[in-house]
Amino acid sequence: MIRLLLSIAVNLIGSALALLVASWVIEGVTLQLGRFLVAVGIFTAAQAILAPFVFNMARKYASAVLGGIGLVSTLLALWVATLFPGGLEITGGLAWVAATVLVWLVTALGGWILAALVIDRWWQRRQGTPRQQRHRPA
Fold first, then answer.
1. Cβ 29 vs Cβ 82: under 8 Å
2. Is residue 121 part of a domain?
């Protein structure tokens, strides 16, 4: 249960960072601070729900595009997040493409890094392995 909560926290932090970076870097991506947490929550939930669905649909009907599943689910999650007014706005085709790629990249890298740092440390503490013994060669 704790591992699930840590995973959710990692995803929320990664999504928040990705949306902030996109709003700072890409012209046409606007993030309203008042509804920032709502936009992050909606994006994260949409991504969690849509990614497996898109993967299964692609696997069943278009296996050649399986590599782009993350991009497709990110695009769909961004679109869902923009449906709630006052949070995230994306205007222009180039902004949509750039935001999709950048948010996908930041959430993927951030998720891997944060998961490695947070979840691995939690797991090591849970196992009761002293820190000095973890990295000692056998």
1. no
2. yes
Three-state DSSP class for 20?
A: helix
- C-alpha–C-alpha distance, residues 72 and 135, integer Å: 39
Count each helix (H run) and each strand (E run) in the chain, helices first: 6, 2
**Helix/strand/coil for 13:** helix
Q: Report the domain count for the chain.
A: 1
The pLDDT assigned to 137 comes to: 57
Kind and range of the H or E run holding 112:
helix 93-114
Segment 85-132, tens digit of pLDDT:
888 999 999 999 999 999 999 988 877 787 777 767 767 777 775 555
Q: Please report, in angstroms and rounded to a whole number, the separation of the first and last CA atoms in the chain.
A: 32
> Domain range holding 101?
24-134
Q: Is residue 106 part of a domain?
A: yes
Q: Note the pTM of the prediction, 2 decimals.
A: 0.73
Please choose, from the candidates 44, 39, 38, 36, the residue with its C-alpha nearest in 3D space to the C-alpha of residue 7. 44
Task: Tokens for 93, please give them.
Answer: 């085709």
Q: What would the two tokens of residue 138 be?
A: 């056998």
Model confidence pLDDT, tens digit, residues 10-46: 788 888 899 999 999 999 998 888 788 888 888 888 8
Domain annotation covers residue 4: no
